[in-house]
Design a protein that fits this description.
- By secondary structure, this protein is an alpha/beta fold.
- 36% of the residues lie in helices and 27% in strands.
- It contains six helices and 13 strands.
- The protein is elongated, with a radius of gyration of 32 Å.
- The chain starts with a helix and ends with a strand.
Length: 272
């Protein structure tokens, strides 16, 4: 009797072991098939704290709506280089890095463009990044960078994106050098609220303190001209006050030309 019970127990154990083996094998097989396919997309915006031109949802939408959408396809067939090329063709995306993990997830890391200026034209607003790349302003996020308006010499059509050539590129490089100087000097960056380009090409500033028109002139001798502007604030304003002058001209060598507020035809030339 005991021998029969032991035999039945061994048979039952063998059946359970056999069923468990097949259940485990089926599970592992299903997991293996699942890992062979691309099953989802994970997006990381590396510089989201600095700029928010694009969102993970937008990145996923771009990929899912494209002909190279890898989701549901064998992960070994994922065209990583084409996905990166697709994303980097979008104006606000500077770099992208795509890979597929062993669990079948397409993982995308994105770095956005870093604007240094916003240019306001009749055709709309544009950002210029630190490489000279121009791309349209977006209404979902505003980057707080200096705004340039007036007689912009670069011909920009609505929706323009790219790097200008010829004389246009030369002007962009010059204005970037000014923006980079401001970026390195937070006090001036906070002080200068508006940059205008006059018809003759002169750069003009309007500052947060005082309402003087600061004529910077051509984008050259940047350090020297800002040193003269500093002299104006430290040595001239304390003597004559904020209200005496309506304009300050930094264009001329070794002098600051100030326009009297009550008579724009009369100027004081202060040598430095």
């Amino acid at each position: 009797m005991i021998k029969r019970i032991v035999t039945y127990c061994l048979i039952a154990f063998a059946v359970l072991l056999f069923c468990g083996y097949f259940a485990a094998a089926s599970y592992l097989s299903a997991q293996g098939r699942k890992g062979e396919l691309c099953t989802g997309i994970s997006v990381t915006i590396l510089d989201s704290a600095a700029n928010r031109f694009v969102s993970p949802e937008e990145i996923r939408s771009i990929i899912l709506s494209s002909d190279i959408n890898p989701v549901g396809r064998p992960r070994t067939e994922t065209q990583l280089d084409l996905i990166e090329e697709l994303l980097e063709s979008r104006s606000a995306i500077r770099l992208s890095d795509a890979s597929v993990s062993m669990d079948g997830i397409l993982r995308v890391k994105v770095t956005q463009r870093r604007p240094v200026l916003r240019v306001q034209t009749e055709k709309g607003a544009f950002y210029i990044d630190d490489t000279g790349y121009i791309f349209p302003w977006v209404n979902t996020f505003t980057s707080y960078v200096p705004v340039v308006s007036g007689h912009i010499p670069v011909r920009l059509e609505e929706g323009y994106r790219g790097v200008p050539e010829g004389d246009d590129r030369q002007w962009v490089e010059q204005i970037i050098s000014l923006a980079q100087y401001l970026d390195r000097h937070p006090v001036w960056n906070a002080q200068i609220q508006q940059i205008d380009v006059e018809e003759n090409g002169d750069i003009v500033f309007y500052n947060a303190i005082g309402d003087q028109k600061i004529i910077f002139g051509a984008i050259d001798d940047i350090d020297y001209k800002f040193a003269k502007l500093r002299t104006y604030y430290l040595e001239i304003v304390p003597v004559y006050g904020w209200e005496r002058y309506s304009g300050v001209n930094l264009k001329f060598s070794d002098q600051i030309v100030c326009t009297l507020r009550d008579d724009n035809k009369v100027k004081n030339s202060i040598r430095i």
